[in-house]
Write a structure and sequence with these properties.
Blueprint: H1 2-27, H2 54-65, H3 87-99, H4 111-125, E1 133-137, H5 140-158, H6 163-166, E2 173-177, H7 182-190, E3 198-200, H8 212-221, E4 226-232, H9 244-253, E5 256-261, E6 286-290, E7 302-306, H10 309-316, H11 345-380, E8 384-388, E9 394-399, H12 404-413, E10 420-424, E11 427-433, H13 441-456
Parallel strand pairs: 2-3, 2-4, 4-5, 5-6
Antiparallel strand pairs: 1-7, 6-7, 8-9, 9-11, 10-11
This protein binds pyridoxal-5'-phosphate.
Pyridoxal-5'-phosphate binds near residues 80, 141, 261 and 302.
Length: about 450
């Protein structure tokens, strides 16, 4: 106890040092190695019997761990779909730990109200109906999980069974999708519907978007009483968009649940020239979006929304005497996976209030322009083949000579830029995804120079 009280004083004494270190880390992001291929390991240390105390641990952190972190929040980390961290969301995230609110039940903190406000702002930002209900999740995978849990429950209802209460039993469900994200396949495994049981809907030519006519025939031919369609609002490589309005009409006709994964692609709605790509989204039964991608808040923040609050509630709500409360606001543990969890809404509250719709729109448009700029350079280059003209923020390409994987390794080893592998229509390639507020046109030029160097080497 004394040691902990001493450490509390130590924290207050160290805070300026920790702040100064943080400021220097952020200022130097641009100069740090963008990645450390090979995953460095921390020096081995036995678990101490008597703890070292915060001041010694702070020194150990700086010495042993700090050199091994990559500059993922920096401007040239173009792997996966990786957002940065805005100053306002970082402030909100720090305070989240300080405040340590458990956003589970209601009646004893403003935290639930803040999350509900943030969900409402997100609906305004994305121009979605304010009647949607949902919660903040760990990420898009967890939002996809909630989508499938609700879809499964709905399919059970149609077959006279409460799946959340009684299990799947003999409930028959068929899942249809054209280009589901890997996380959706993982989720189908988790919810007992089977990763390899998806009915593959063909794609349109040279696209990852669903062939809606083919979906219509497959739905008409299916005898499964429960049907789920997973649509994409932005596939992770081609950034193609399924025709949501047409798919929603088919889902209505065939009593299928429509889940839309718009983890990053939903932000295309902020750009008037791309707004039409997600027309019909408001008819989806459930929607996944991600905040730790294009909204540039720190990790651990996804978004799940549904038109069916009652289904979500039935899936997530369990009663226990110590949990029963009678409050005006919904308890968020009844709308999500966890019972106890962190106050994810606060970084978003800071972010959305600090930068508004206009700020987010600027990041989205700038990142899309950067993707187009890189694509134009690749197209003009004799060393590379652009595999698909980017529609949004992802560029997929390959070297004209040699293996994409080998070139990617060389590129990432340089420490100036980080990209991840991709595949387009069976051709192995390299993917660069732009979703960081820090990335500038000058960074795109550095990326082009780095690519030219490895291609020439
Ligand atoms: C379309 C899509 N869905 C889901 C995910 C999974 O998101 P997360 O890593 O936040 O769980 C991603 C990640 O890139 C994605 O692009």
């Amino acid at each position: 106890m004394d040691a902990l009280l001493q450490d509390q004083q130590a924290l207050f004494a160290l805070q300026e040092d920790i702040m100064a270190w943080s400021a220097s880390w952020l200022r130097q992001l641009d100069a740090r190695p963008v990645a450390h291929p090979g995953d460095p390991l921390p020096p081995p240390r036995p678990l101490p019997t008597t703890g070292l105390g915060l001041p010694a641990v702070w020194q150990a952190f700086k010495q042993d761990l700090a050199p091994g972190f990559n500059a993922a929040p920096g401007p040239r980390y173009l792997g996966f779909v990786t957002g940065g961290v805005t100053p306002a969301s970082l402030a909100g995230d720090w305070l989240t730990a300080v405040l340590d609110q458990n956003v589970a039940s209601t009646g004893n903190s403003i935290a639930t109200g803040v999350e509900l406000q943030v969900l409402d702002w997100l609906c305004q930002l994305l121009d979605l109906p304010s009647s949607l209900a949902g919660s903040l999740t760990t990420g898009a995978t967890a939002a996809n999980l909630l989508g499938m849990v609700c879809a499964r429950q709905h399919a059970g209802w149609r077959q006279g069974r409460d799946v959340a209460r009684d299990g799947l039993g003999g409930v028959a469900i068929e899942v249809f999708s054209a280009t589901p994200h890997a996380s959706s396949l993982k989720v189908l495994g988790l919810v007992g519907l089977g990763r390899e049981q998806v009915v593959a809907v063909p794609c349109l030519p040279d696209s990852e978007a669903m062939d809606v006519a083919a979906l219509g025939s497959l739905l008409a031919g299916s005898s499964a009483p429960g049907k789920i369609v997973i649509a994409s609002a932005g596939t992770v490589t081609g950034t193609d968009f399924d025709d949501l309005a047409a798919i929603a009409a088919l889902c209505r006709a065939h009593h299928a649940w429509l889940h839309v994964d718009g983890a990053f692609g939903l932000f295309s709605r902020l750009d008037p020239s791309r707004r039409e790509w997600t027309a019909g989204i408001e008819q989806a039964d459930s929607i996944t979006c991600d905040a730790h991608k294009w909204l540039n808040v720190p990790y651990d923040c996804g978004i799940f929304l549904t038109r069916h609050a009652e289904v979500l509630q039935q899936c997530c709500s369990v009663s226990a005497p110590y949990l029963d409360q009678d409050d005006a606001l919904p308890a968020l543990m009844d709308r999500g996976i966890e019972q106890s969890r962190r106050f994810r809404a606060l970084p978003l509250w800071f972010n959305l209030l600090a930068y508004g719709r206009g700020g987010v729109r600027q990041w989205v448009e700038a990142n899309c322009d950067q993707a187009a700029r890189l694509a134009a350079w690749l197209e003009a280059s004799a060393d590379f083949e652009l595999l698909k003209t980017p529609k949004l923020n992802v560029v997929v390409f390959r070297p004209v000579r040699g293996e994409a994987q080998a070139l990617l390794q060389q590129l990432n080893a340089g420490g100036e830029v980080f990209m991840t592998p991709g595949q387009w229509r069976g051709k192995a390639g390299i993917r660069a995804a732009f979703s960081n507020w820090r990335t500038t046109d000058a960074d795109v030029e550095r990326v082009c120079r780095a690519l030219a160097r490895v291609a020439g080497a």
